[in-house]
Amino acid sequence: MAELLEADREATQGSVNAPPVARERSAAVQLVMGVARAILWAVGLLVLGVAVWEGYKALGRAFEDTVPILGIKFPISTTDYSMPHSWDIAAAFMEPARRGQPATLLEFLALQTWVTMREALIGLVIGGLLGVALAGMFSLAAPIRRGLMPWMVVSQTIPLVALAPMIVIWGGQIGLPSWMAVSFISAYLAFFPVAINTLRGLQSPPMVQREFMVSIAAGRVKTFRLLRFPAALPLFFTGLKLAATTSVVGAIVGELSAGTGAGIGRSILNFTYYYSNGPEKLYAAVLVAAVSGVLFVQIINAVERVALRHRVAEGRPS
User: What is the CATH architecture assignment of 96-315?
Assistant: First the structure.
């Protein structure tokens, strides 16, 4: 870890005064270092999670799920039924997903995750475009912002489990496939963080810069294009990473309501029904869903590094 950080620091220090080709190479090195750090952190957190899981389970088995002296019961039972061993969960990935089928659980969950990620990606694109459009409209027209912003906030207070079936029903009435209804549910959760963060970014340029644009007779559209939108890009990506997590959650919840028959959400529901026959399969499905959400955010993070690499390199001290 220390060697990676030192290499990243040296690449950063030499990037500002370097020629364009060397600067591009330095940006690529920083991108690789960022990916390596993310992998190391992920592995470290996984090891820590396994240690905490097995440590809690060992303590529970040693003291019969009761805190010594205090006599307080553990909040979660440590039996193999409630908390399978981490190695049992890992071994379940290589077992058949269903009886009589050759596909392993890992292959099955990979296919189901791809379905969910596709729905989440479409929802993220739709929600991202809607969020950017709303932020741009709000920044250019204050009366519209004051009129619509409260309703946009209210829309996020509606419980998703109540709204998702309605979206599925409305989509079915107009002939939309069920997976498209799931993507709309993802978009519903994704647009809000993109809109709020992009709006903050559009309003972030200092007054002196805005006054300069006025002094050269730049109109609202030109000021938006040359000043406000470039300034909003960092916060736009911040909102997009938040939206990536919510879009995955929206897709999983949407699959439970849409009855698509595919997707990691449906898999989690099916393994819940048959929990007594294989509790480790449910934990494996939940683990895959969590990892897919993390990977989704890391993809957005990599896109951000590439899109803002020149700004980051020029903004760091030599």
Answer: Orthogonal Bundle (1.10)
